[in-house]
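Example (one chain per record):
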Amino acid sequence: MKSNRRRVPGGALALALASAVALSGCGKNETHSLEKAGAAADKAIEKAKDATAEAAKSVSEAAEKAKDTAAAAATSVSQAADKAVDATKEAADKAAAATKDAAASTAKATSTAVAPKK
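Predicted structure:
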């Protein structure tokens, strides 16, 4: 087989160019895949940050509601205690008045029983 000296460098150049194009395409595909994976990882990290912030906000709101509920309960207990104290005072006043009336009735009955009628 006889080869032409002009064709050898041209064929070598064509082979080198074809190899360069094929290999550069492979490299770009890998980089593209890595870029996609990196972008997906970045999105996942952002979603995790957002979820963490939302959870912290929810916990904070729940704590605030619990604090408000506890304050309302404490107020209710305080009001109930005040009402109980008022009711006890009122009952004691009524008992004292009833005792005073009973004592007065007893004293009156005693004075009329002891004193002779004219």
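Caption: DSSP finds one helix and no strands in the chain.
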